[in-house]
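Kindly go through the following sequence and its backbone structure tokens. Advise at your convenience whether the structure tokens fit the sequence:

___
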Amino acid sequence: MFERQKTVGVLTGGGDVPGLNPALKTLVNRAADNGYKVVGIRRGWGGLLNFNRDDPEAREKYIMPLDRQTVRTVDRTGGTFLHTSRTNPGKVAGADVPSFLQDFTVQASASGTHDFTQHVLATLDHLGIDALIPIGGDDTLSYAERLHREGFPVVAIPKTMDNDVFGTDYCIGFSTAVTRSVNFIHNLRTSAGSHERIAVVELFGRNSGETSLISAYLAGVDRALISEVPFDVEKLCAFLREDKRGNKSNYAMVTVSEGASMIGGQVVEYGQEDAYGHKKLGGIGVVVSEAIKQLTGSHIIYQQLSYLMRSGAPDSLDLMVAFNYANMAMDLIAEGMSGRMVALQGGTYCHIPISSIMQGVKRVDVTELYDCEQYRPKVRHVLGKPMFLY
């Protein structure tokens, strides 16, 4: 009796990071070795939400068959060729409900959103997908965990340059983001020194200040503001005046997590909330820069690195982790396992229940790694710490 070839679906969600395309290529090649067919779902969870099973053009728009030839060269570039979105099919605002689902809109929750998980499950069945590999951060993977609870086979791969998915020491994209940040910070020294200014460098990092902390640590920045510790701007300015005077080139530098806040202040947010309840961040660097200028009288260089941190090709570490995570994910599916997330713990590759991501939050270990009084990295001891000191 003929046995249907098993099909694995893969999608990328949330912010793009270097390492996604190499992970996709490795996954497809490993799947081919194991006798599986792979289909890419375009635009993250949005591809499944917006897939109209009665529209013959839906497959071309949202589904991409993947084979060795399709992915042959994709690992040479950053980003994700499958595209991405911040869609959450379990929490769809009324304005975002696809037109073909308007007549089937489920009762809104207390927050006014609609849950189209049953449509997603029916779409996965319609596409003949036997198991799904979502690649994303804690938001994207929280919906993967929902599908697992609904009984659909899922194996997750963590990625985010904030490195804040709970349960793993490392997420695809973090090393490259830090490497980019360190390089840009060092390059900015020439302008800061030439003009004798205070340079304020704003980095991505909503709830975790790890990118600001580690980038400042590796680049030897004078001060670092992180999401976990509200700061006193007058105290900060006193430090920066001292740092500037103590530098023979007469400049100082401070990194700022986009999620940082002043004591008694709020995180700088703007725009509407996305499907996961987050508004856009960015702008705390402007607030800090203006305050520093007023309090110190120094001219400022303000640089928001933002998407420069996550653009371009991955470094060697992100390539290594992307390759290995993808191979592990396909091996788990071949072994008939699901409801798992591949991970690194204590420098060793492993896999954990996908529900682990819902059991806590991953933040900077302030007691071990940060000086709350001096606003700078302070690694109290290295022995026994993971490679990135988390």
In short: The chain has two domains: 7-172+312-358, 176-309+365-377. The mean pLDDT is 92. The CA atoms of residues 21 and 81 lie 7 Å apart.
